[in-house]
Amino acid sequence: MQIKNICCIGAGYVGGPTMAVIALKCPDIKVTVVDLNIDRIAAWNGPIENLPIYEPGLAQVVNKARGRNLFFSTEVDKAIDSAEMIFMAVNTPTKTEGEGAGMAADLRYVEACTKNIARVAKTDKIVIEKSTLPVRTAEKIKEILNKQGSSGVHFEILSNPEFLAEGTAIQDLFKSDRVLIGGDSSEKGQKAVQTLVNIYIKWIPKEKILTTNVWSSELSKLASNAMLAQRISSINSLSALCEKTRADIEELSKAIGMDHRIGPHFLKTSVGFGGSCFQKDILNLVYLCKFYGLHEVAEYWHQVIKINDYQKKRFAQKIIDHFSGDLNGKKIAILGWAFKVNTNDSRESPAIYVAEKLFKAGAIMEIYDPMVSKESVFSDISFYWEVSKIKDLKSRISVNDSLTTLDLSVDAAAILTEWDEFKNLDFSKTIVFDGRGVVSSSKYSIGKG
Ligand code: UDX
Ligand code: ADP
After folding, report:
1. 225 lines ligand 1 (CB under 6 A)
2. What pLDDT does residue 405 have?
3. 130 in ligand 1 pocket by Cβ < 6 Å?
4. For the chain, what is the total number of helices (H) and then of strands (E)?
């Protein structure tokens, strides 16, 4: 099948950058990214320096393709109608109520999106799962499309999970370690797989495009994230032991990572991992294991989350203990709010948790992140913090929009996102805590307690 029109439902962290790169690399295909969120689409169509997502290199890609063959729109039905290929890149948060609450993926957006496709489609479509979904979701999608779709319209479902990491999304999309495409073994299924391969082959070497069955592809995404997060929880658990024994966690990481069977990546100790994927995907995996009666396997993966919670708690507690349990009237600088460097995304950021604990222990806080706005910080606080109405919130928390207005003569500073600009700050007047569990009373340097 010759693809002339692609539609992507969901203009978020996954849909936006992925489609921008596909449009850039395939100038002969019209790519339309649609979303129900009017403000988000307006921002994608607005000034290039104010795109809704901050991602190094993204603005340049959008600038080249936007208006040429890349379009952002709220006209979801129209884009579905004219596309031969539809990517689903909608959000799949953790369920908050009902069966599997707190663990299973909430598939309501995927379901709504599928029903929308079924209602509108009048010609055959290749429907691609881009969002991370529990294994065997394709079966449900197929059922809805076949039941509710127009008769005579054929839907082929593919799984093509996104492996990009925020902060390096554009590089990850340009030079992917692998592109995974799962499809049905039937003739039509394999044809659909080939159609998608033909798109990626324009810039990804053939040997890096891996085709599998749908279920392996769906599960590989969850499993990859679980394995990566497991390494972080492993090293973070060892950082606690290092602090007791005066071993240096960075030296440990280096020594471990030099074993080529282990490798150096994802061994950096931190305040804990954050982001929209790891926690959500592991909980999803735990739920799946429980669903299939594999309780030991569920418990094994659950431990990765528990260590992450422990690490965040341990970090905040260390600061509280430093002030003998009483932070009343103490001024703490919270440096960094994003869940990692080079993104404006703060979903599940450890900073949110650490700040909550410090605030509840009485601290006065000065928060600064170069990419996260004041509005986002307060919206995270009202969404994540366990007390909905905290008195004196605004009198004890100030969010700075510039580093120059930040007062560093505070009682302590906590570096929670590793932005480069924090590396050269003059911390001579305060005590600094960071992800390495280091307490530095002079410079931001390692090992001096
Ligand atoms: C992750 C996966 O890497 C990506 O393949 C998948 O598609 C989505 O989930 P992302 O969450 O964007 O990507 O960022 P990642 O770089 O994986 O970092 C996740 C968290 O782990 C961050 O909070 C980061 O600070 C932390 N981390 C990462 C560590 O604490 N130590 C490390 O060594 C690496
Ligand atoms: P991700 O990090 O997975 O990209 P985001 O939350 O950033 O997640 O983006 C998902 C986007 O999908 C949101 O902008 C949301 O408005 C959009 N979305 C969810 N459901 C639908 C739907 N049925 N139709 C169109 N857009 C949708």
Report:
1. yes
2. 83
3. no
4. 15, 14
